[in-house]
Specification:
This protein is α+β, with helices and mostly antiparallel strands and 159 residues long. The protein has two helices and eleven strands, in the order βββββββββββαα. It has helices spanning 119-129, 133-152, and strands at 5-11, 17-29, 32-38, 43-45, 49-51, 56-62, 67-73, 79-87, 91-93, 96-108, 114-117. The strands form two sheets. A seven-stranded mixed beta barrel has the order 1-2-3-6-7-8-10. It is globular and about 45 Å long.
């Protein structure tokens, strides 16, 4: 399976696809799946600004965790930033990885500074969809775990 092209679907809470892209699977290690992809066009992102065509994305997904991690590198290979999505644990079947994005994101620099983004969007959708207390607890735990990993420089943030 390593080296195979995989489709990744970021879904909204209602199951509809928000974004979809292709990556190459480069590592499977227990519940961790690592992919690498390349932006085929420039994208203007609300929080990341201009992401140039050719930007490389190393993507870390755990099948048993409530988050994923993106490590972006400029087209010339220079490190750009980390971006974390809080999401329900993904599924991986028949060359397709699916996850439900829960809106909260974390943007981090290589020096360990970070910003938590879109908390208001999470709260709006929590009300709209009636998120359970259990889901809210898992989201809070994921944010806590990620911020601790960032502060301590743990994998995949080991600088």
């Amino acid at each position: 399976m390593n080296g195979d092209t995989v489709k990744i679907n970021s879904r909204k809470f209602d199951g509809s696809i928000g974004k979809s892209w292709n990556c190459k699977l480069v590592e499977e290690n227990g519940t961790l799946l690592v992919f690498v992809g390349e932006f085929d066009r420039a994208i203007n992102h609300e929080h990341l600004g201009l992401i140039k065509r050719g930007t490389i994305s190393y993507e870390y997904y755990w099948l048993d965790r409530w988050y994923n991690v993106f490590r972006f590198h400029e087209p010339d290979g220079a490190f750009r930033n980390y971006y974390y999505n809080i999401n329900m644990p993904p599924t991986f079947e028949n060359g397709v990885l699916d996850y439900i994005d829960l809106d909260i994101d974390i943007l981090a620099a290589n020096d360990g500074t970070y910003s938590i983004l879109d908390s208001n969007e999470f709260e709006e959708n929590a009300l709209k969809h009636g998120f359970s207390d259990d889901l809210r607890l898992n989201v809070s735990a994921a944010v806590y775990e990620l911020t601790l990993m960032i502060k301590q420089g743990e994998f995949p943030f080991d600088r």
